[in-house]
């Protein structure tokens, strides 16, 4: 896992004025909206006796601990301890970690790291979100697999004819070859354009996109650090963009929060059909991703066999290793030190950011 990036941790629509618990990077966080609609993200742990703040309630733009009623501002500072009354000062350590927040592209983004604001990698662009030519659907899929394997699955151009033989990949059955392609560097990411010259008609709802029995499919796959994949498919009748944030919950769990954009059949009546088909495709991926061993992609490039079609996944591995070499790796399993108290508001505790060569 990596620090010093903006992480989309939840859909905007899922966060209200009620505390919302989430788990990410092996740690627990709580999200809530204040009276002005602004989102706050805090560590889901009261520094007093470790109770989950997400079991409490929002009051005056703050959150109350459910155990002893301590009241915390959005910056993590405690401003009221009911048992103390007015005669006792609030201890300086009575604060919990808070995190910078942005709300963009239908997601709540939190920055996890120790970089100054001016040095933080940006949230990558998503032009389709505001493009009236595209209609979105929102889905969420859980994988009992490490996020690196889930990401590589999304970047792999060679598994369609096998893993997805009963869905959109049926169109590759007669010619599963992957033509040579070039990996291009992006701002904090990579991309590749792929062309399939003999893409026959697939099964399921995707067959509505094709007229001829054989047609050319142009695709572009993009990865942005730390965990975003975008797969653009240009069909005869229109275009589809699959945007996915692969949230690293812990070492064995990944939740992919996705937006699928389509330029055809944009009526809402078609949404359930596309949602159902999307889940079918994800189920096909799930079995393979959850079976992979080792669970995490190896650090050594010689630990697994590679072919030319693996150029994009290999570029991802190299990009990730560059971040590790910069000291941006996170401990695979949080320890007691990971829950050290912050020294000030809107700062991730230094102990939480212990660099490591692990995942």
From TrEMBL:
Annotated TM spans: none
UniProt key word Chaperone: no
Keyword Ligase (UniProt): no
Xref: Pfam families: Rieske, VanA_C
Domain Rieske: 6-110
Chain positions covered by the region annotation Disordered: 339-359
Biased composition, class Polar residues, residue ranges: 341-359
InterPro entries in the record: ARHD_Rieske_2Fe_2S, Cholesterol_7-desaturase, Rieske_2Fe-2S, Rieske_2Fe-2S_sf, VanA_C_cat
Keywords: 2Fe-2S, Iron, Iron-sulfur, Metal-binding, Oxidoreductase
Protein name: Rieske 2Fe-2S domain-containing protein
């Amino acid at each position: 896992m990596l620090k010093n990036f903006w992480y989309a941790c939840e859909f905007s629509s899922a966060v209200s004025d009620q505390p919302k618990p989430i788990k990410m990077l092996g740690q627990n966080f709580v999200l809530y909206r204040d009276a002005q609609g602004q989102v706050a993200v805090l560590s889901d742990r009261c520094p007093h006796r470790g109770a989950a703040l997400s079991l409490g309630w929002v009051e005056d733009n703050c959150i109350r601990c459910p155990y002893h009623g301590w009241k915390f501002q959005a910056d993590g500072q405690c401003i009221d301890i009911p048992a103390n009354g007015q005669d006792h000062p609030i201890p300086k350590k009575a604060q919990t970690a808070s995190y910078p927040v942005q709300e963009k592209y239908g997601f709540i983004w939190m920055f996890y790291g120790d970089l100054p604001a001016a040095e933080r990698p940006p949230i990558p662009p998503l032009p389709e979100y505001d493009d009236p030519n595209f209609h979105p659907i929102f889905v969420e899929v859980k994988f009992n697999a490490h996020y690196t394997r889930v990401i590589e699955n999304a970047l792999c151009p060679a598994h369609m004819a096998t893993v997805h033989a009963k869905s959109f990949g049926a169109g590759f059955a007669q010619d599963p070859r992957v033509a040579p392609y070039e990996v291009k560097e992006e701002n904090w990411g990579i991309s590749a354009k792929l062309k399939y010259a003999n893409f026959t008609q697939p099964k399921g709802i995707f067959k509505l996109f094709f007229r001829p029995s054989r047609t050319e499919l142009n695709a572009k796959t993009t990865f942005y650090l730390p965990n975003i994949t975008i797969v653009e498919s240009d069909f005869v009748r229109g275009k589809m963009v699959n945007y996915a944030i692969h949230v690293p919950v812990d070492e064995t769990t990944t939740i992919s929060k996705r937006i699928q954009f389509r330029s055809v059949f944009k009526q809402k009546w078609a949404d359930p059909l596309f949602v159902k088909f999307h889940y079918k495709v994800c189920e096909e991926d799930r079995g393979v991703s959850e079976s992979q061993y080792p669970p995490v992609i190896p650090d050594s490039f010689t630990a697994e066999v590679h072919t030319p079609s693996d150029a994009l996944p290999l570029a991802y591995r190299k990009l990730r290793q560059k971040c590790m070499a910069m000291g941006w790796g996170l401990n695979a399993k949080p320890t007691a030190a990971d829950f050290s108290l912050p020294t000030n508001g809107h700062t991730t505790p230094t102990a939480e950011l212990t660099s490591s060569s692990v995942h």
